[in-house]
Amino acid sequence: MSIPSEIAHCQYHPRAAAGWFCPACDAKLCPDCAVLESVASTDLLSCARCGGAVEEFKVHRSHAPFSRRLLGTWSYPLRKSGLLALLAVGAVVAMSRGLASILPFVPGLILLTIWLGSFWGSLFWIVRGTAMGAEHFTAPDFHDVHHDLVSPAIRGTVATALIWVPAVLFIWNADETNGSIAMFAVMVLATVLYAPMALLFAATGQGTLSLLNPFKVIGIGMRLGRAYLVVAAWMVPLALLHLVLMFVAGKVSSLSIPLLPSVVGEALSLYVPFVMARMLGLLLYVHGDRVGYGVDSEFYEPALPGVKPRGKKRAARVPAQAQPEAIRPRVIELEPEPAPRPAATPEPLEVQVVKAVETNALDRALELYRRLPEAPAPLPAASHVAVGQKAASVGDYPLAVRALKQVAQHSPEDPLAPKACVILARLYGERLGDEASALKLYRHVVGRYPGTDAARFAQSRLTPA
Ligand SMILES: [Zn+2]
Ligand SMILES: [Zn+2]
After folding, report:
1. Which of 1, 20, 83, 208 has the greatest number of C-beta atoms within 10 Å?
2. What pLDDT, in 10s, does the model give residues 393-425?
3. Which ligand is closest to the CA of 55, given by its number?
4. Which ligand is nearest to the CA of 16?
């Protein structure tokens, strides 16, 4: 895959975006210039110009404007799954926080841990899920008090501890600086720049002690570059909105009805943290390869996702510029589409999965894959990996594990195998809370596929910074 990251246009239709590449013509092709054809129940992609085999054209995730992706984060907590999560986490926080303040020390401390743990745990869950391509919030499974509550509570607190240093220093030196506005502005700027890095660092499971090392934390921000600054800039309006929401939450919580107002109040005050976590996750989703988070090839996606080639095989002597769509009278559009001709014999499920993956119909591929028997006829590793990644992004972790395991177990020689193992390990470690299986897989990748991108990443997960 040699892929430039800018948007490419069709060699023959300079206004159309290219989704395929023809090595024979050395040309990028739009959907009208690529042909999809079924031969002996296998889908073949070819070039409408020369008939040669074409490849899907892939671009780096960063080719889509990052600022547009960031705008989408505002609605993330407002979708159905997000609202449910706001209320659920809000309820846990409201109850544990309310009780922690009135109970004696030891049970109070436990409730404090539940409060901080559910707060930070849900934020880290959003960051890591988004980094893996999750489209919406999926409920975390809770199985381990240390892993799911204590550790997030500690990491969140430690990571944010350094954020308060500038403020503390400012107050400490208040006499000398004598309320200098410029000094205060520098402090605020330092906080805005530092906070996202520290949280990103905490969310990705770096060692707790290294959270206190500003050099390591700043390194992450430096490598993320401009995209990082964009996210940091967003923190300012978000923080202002947060103040407004906290004010509203305070008003709501003081209503003299038990419980419900405080749950709604906590949910309101979680909105901005959820948006921030989604933004940080997107940073990793798009630019994680710059900080060694993930395998490089994961960061390339089809240039025209979900678009099928619609070119026709070139008939002899037909002028290439004849565009039938353009001259068709408008009236015809009102007529019903002719029903597709039913296939003579239904194709085996396996073949349908492969086809769906090849034409990028991943939702369909997922649906078909679910219906496959546990031990299906051998599929290409690429189909398993595509299904595994898609399943992970929609939160169907058992299916993702099943698909990726197929590659790890049955096609260990395939060039995609190391990548499949690493994604599987991340699913175990970051989604399913099975740290032991994750470490085992990372060690396997390091030993079995030395020198690969995947091994480099696996090594970095085995030796936390
Ligand atoms: Zn074209
Ligand atoms: Zn060609």
Report:
1. 20
2. 888 888 999 999 888 888 888 888 888 998 899
3. 2
4. 1
Q: Is 212 exposed, middle or buried (0-12, 13-18, 19+ CB in 10 A)?
A: middle
- Quick one: how far is CA 48 from the chain centroid? 35
User: Is pLDDT above 50 for 309?
Assistant: yes
Which of 75, 74, 89 minimizes the C-alpha distance to 237?
Answer: 74
Which residue is associated with the tokens 């990571």?
159
Ligand nearest to the CA of 31: 1
Record the tokens describing residue 179, joined without a space: 């309320």
- Residue 301 C-alpha to ligand 1 middle, in angstroms? 20
Domains belonging to the chain, first-starting first, are 1-57+303-312 (no CATH), 66-299 (no CATH), 346-465 (1.25.40.10)
Rounded to the nearest angstrom, the distance between the alpha carbon of 360 and the centre of ligand 1 is 19
Q: CA-to-CA distance for 235 and 24, rounded, in angstroms?
A: 49
Rg (CA), the chain: 26
Q: In this structure, what are the phi and psi dihedrals at residue 338, rounded to the nearest 5 degrees?
A: -65, 140
3-state secondary structure 56-120: ECEEEHHHCCHHHHHHHHHHHHHCHHHHHHHHHHHHHHHHHHHHHCCCCHHHHHHHHHHHHHHHH
DSSP 388-399: HHHHHHTT-HHH
Q: Which stretches of 132-178 are DSSP H helices?
A: 145, 151-161, 165-172, 174-177
pLDDT tens-digit series, residues 228-251:
889 988 888 998 999 999 999 888
Residue 93 and residue 265: Cα distance in Å, rounded? 10
For residue 279, the surrounding DSSP H or E stretch is helix 260-287
Q: Which amino acid, residue 85?
A: A
37 in Cβ contact with 46 (< 8 Å)? yes
